[in-house]
Design brief:
The complex is a heterodimer of chains A (about 160) and B (about 150).
Chain A: H1 3-11, H2 13-20, H3 24-50, H4 60-63, H5 67-87, H6 89-92, H7 96-123, H8 134-160
Helix pairs in contact in A: 2-5, 3-5, 3-8, 7-8
Chain B: H1 2-5, H2 9-16, H3 20-46, H4 62-82, H5 84-88, H6 91-111, H7 122-148
Helix pairs in contact in B: 2-3, 2-4, 3-4, 3-7, 6-7
Classes of the chains: A mainly alpha (about 160), B mainly alpha (about 150).
Chain lengths: ~160, ~150
């Protein structure tokens, strides 16, 4: 089932560059770590504030102003992730850790969209030190949990991947 | 001395067990996300992102950055001891330490300024940019270590 997908992605110019130009793959890894720090840094500020952390100093509205960093981080990581995938698809598609990571990223994204469309509008115009409702706190806690799982799965991926290459 | 410490149980666990190395490497990534993530947000705020955020509100997040630094000092020491003969001669590793020290100085100089909530000037922006770029350099050097000093 995965063979044609693996073949196609590894034949793309991105896949060739990732394998044949020695610095492209490591450069992608640096971008991936940079994006990770941007994404997690912004999610820490936003999610911890939603959980009630620093609420006397920071309004929810102000904390949400850090979100562009998370979006830039996510875009960098999807881009560099596609590079890894095209360069060595055989290391990723068959790997359970990779599939779970992909699932976790989708869940993290869905959780963030749920927050943006269902919870954020209700938080507009609340007091600066507003203590969010329990549903918002659950979403924030879930967000931190999911992104932590994404880091753990990503870091374990090369060690549990079945392929030897 | 290093040879003696590198024979202690936690170091042997990292160097020789199946899961010690990936577990400590994962802790190193989580610690990085905490300390570099928070400092990046602080640097970006000083550089102009999210002007509604009071710069001093980051004081509330700095303990978390310290926690990340602590996790990485411990996990980093274990990773170093597990393969110390290679690391001591690894240019990327020594470069990473120097970049981290420089980043720490810049971040400390920036965080201790008392004018950040009144007017952010060129000096503060310079320190924030230096902190961000030095940390990015440390991440880059850290990645190169992975290519130049594989255990065993």
């Amino acid at each position: 089932m995965f063979e044609s997908l693996i073949q196609w992605s590894s034949d793309t110019w991105l896949g060739r560059a990732g394998r044949d130009v020695f610095w492209v793959f490591p450069a992608g890894e640096v971008v991936h770590f940079f994006g990770l720090c941007l994404l997690i840094g912004a999610m820490l500020v936003v999610d911890l504030r939603l959980l009630g952390f620093a609420r006397r100093r920071l309004s929810i509205d102000a904390a949400l102003a850090m979100l562009p960093a998370a979006i830039v981080g996510l875009v960098l990581n999807i881009g560099s992730g596609i590079l890894f995938l095209c360069a060595h698809p055989e290391n990723y598609w068959p790997s359970t850790a990779f599939r779970l990571k992909l699932l976790a990223v989708v869940l993290g994204g869905a959780n963030a969209l749920w927050f943006k469309h269902r919870q954020a509008p209700r938080l507009a115009g609340v007091a600066d030190d507003f203590d969010a409702d329990s549903r918002t706190k659950a979403i924030a806690a879930l967000s931190l949990l999911i992104w932590t799982i994404v880091i753990v799965l990503g870091r374990f991926l090369p060690f549990v991947s079945k392929s030897t290459s | 001395m290093l040879d003696y410490i590198s024979q202690t149980a936690p170091v042997l666990w990292v160097a020789e067990s199946d899961w010690g190395y990936p577990i400590v490497l994962t802790l190193h990534s989580i610690g990085m996300a905490l300390v570099v993530g928070i400092i990046f947000m602080f640097d970006l705020r000083v550089l102009g992102l999210g002007s509604r955020v009071s710069v001093r509100s980051f004081d509330a997040f700095f303990p978390l950055a310290w926690l990340g630094l602590g996790i990485n000092a411990i996990s980093g020491t274990l990773l170093f001891l597990a393969n110390h003969t290679a690391f001591l001669h690894n240019t990327a590793f020594l470069t990473k330490l120097a970049l981290l020290a420089a980043a720490a100085v810049c971040t400390w100089l920036l965080a201790r300024r008392d004018d950040l909530d009144t007017e952010i000037g060129g000096a503060a922006r310079g320190l924030a940019a230096a902190s961000l770029l030095l940390l990015l350099g440390a991440i880059t050097a850290g990645r190169i270590i992975g290519y130049t000093s594989v255990p065993e």
